Amino acid sequence: MSNEGDSVPTEPADNSQVDDCAGASSLQVPASIPVHPDSPTAEVVGSNLSQLAIKRAYNELGESEATRAVALTALRELVTNDAQLSCRTDNAFLIKFLRHRKFNVEGAHQKIRAYLQVRNTMSDVFANFNPGGVRAVLEGYPNLFCLLPERDSEGRLLVMCRVGAWDCDGVSRTDLLRTVGVLMEAALEEEETQVNGVSVILDLHGLSWHQILTMKRDSYLKRLKEVVSKALPVRVKQIHLMRGGRIFDVAFKIFSFLLSAKMRQRVLNHGPSVASLHKAIEPRLLPIEQPFCGTMDSHTDESLRLRPFKEGRFDLLSGRWDAWFEANNKQKFLEN
After folding, report:
1. Within its chain, how far is the Cα of 227 from the centroid?
2. Which residues, 6 or more positions from 331, have their beta carbon under 8 angstroms from its beta carbon?
3. Calpha distance 13→68 (Å, rounded)
4. pLDDT tens for each residue of 261-313
5. Nearest alpha-carbon partner for 322 in 157, 128, 72, 148
6. Residue 37 C-alpha from the chain's centroid
7. What domains appear along the chain, each with residue ranges and CATH number?
């Protein structure tokens, strides 16, 4: 998914702080905007990473204290001098794109352009792009999406989607895509997720031809790829498929061309096998329901079912995230 970076680390990353040297952008958008309380601030980017993430950032992304400081300065200069970008220049924003592009500064610059340009090309998706804009989906269909509370053994955020719970007559494709985008924006505020990536678990039980044909119309899956793969700086490391059945097997052959060769290798089709899923993801991290059959704490599991996105790190419906999205949405890509 990501290009190799140009920078070669000279020393392992550590918990040192990076001074903030953010300046105003060329289009007079404040470099410092309200930041969610749990977000890495400009002064502490890189200082809260786990040891696992520090090692991965160094070995896989080329990130060290030295390369981080140099790359942030270089990327800030590129963004500030790009007349088409009206965007943030603080460290917390820039570091997400540097990590995604493995500290290839020009690659990160182009990723920021794509991140903002898609807001123009898909203005319907990015209208009301905030927790309030997806409240009806998250509250009305609480079993559809879940960001699990604990990370897997590789430090990845576990993102669960019960595809069969999607009522494609009640939730439009645009609403669904907007919800995915808002969830990923929130997830990417965690530095551990920026470095370690996400693992997606898709429960395909209940998938129907009606849903498949709905996704096929208006190039929905292509639009999904544009948002998740080309615009958002998210590293999708694995996709776990459960209970696909014959309908999915046929559909996957139709739509698999949308996945890169690398991403196709990251798809693990467990079918109905719980044992296969548990080999890949520890049962203690999974809900107790079928088909996951995990041993997650029962109280936590009940909270996930009854109060999703109202408590915990991703309490999007609590109001805590509103100011962050409002400020972040002020960024623009100015077409020629």
Report:
1. 10
2. 29, 86, 87, 88, 116, 119
3. 9
4. 888 899 999 999 999 999 999 999 999 888 999 998 765 655 555 556 877 88
5. 128
6. 18
7. 51-126+329-333 (1.10.8), 128-318 (3.40.525.10)
Q: What is the residue type of 105?
A: V
Using an 8 Å Cβ cutoff, are 25 and 76 in contact?
Answer: no
Instruction: Judge whether 25 and 82 are in contact, CB under 8 Å.
Output: no
Q: What is the reported pTM?
A: 0.85
Contact 56, 156 (CB under 8 A): no
- Packed helices 209-216 and 245-255: angle between N→C axes, nearest 10 degrees: 10
User: Cβ of 26: how many Cβ atoms within 10 Å?
Assistant: 15
pLDDT digits (tens, 9 = 90+) for 64-90: 999 999 999 999 999 999 999 999 999
The answer to whether 288 touches 294, Cβ cutoff 8 Å, is yes
- Segment 238-265, tens digit of pLDDT: 999 999 888 887 777 767 777 888 888 9
Rounded CA-CA distance 238/281 in Å is 11
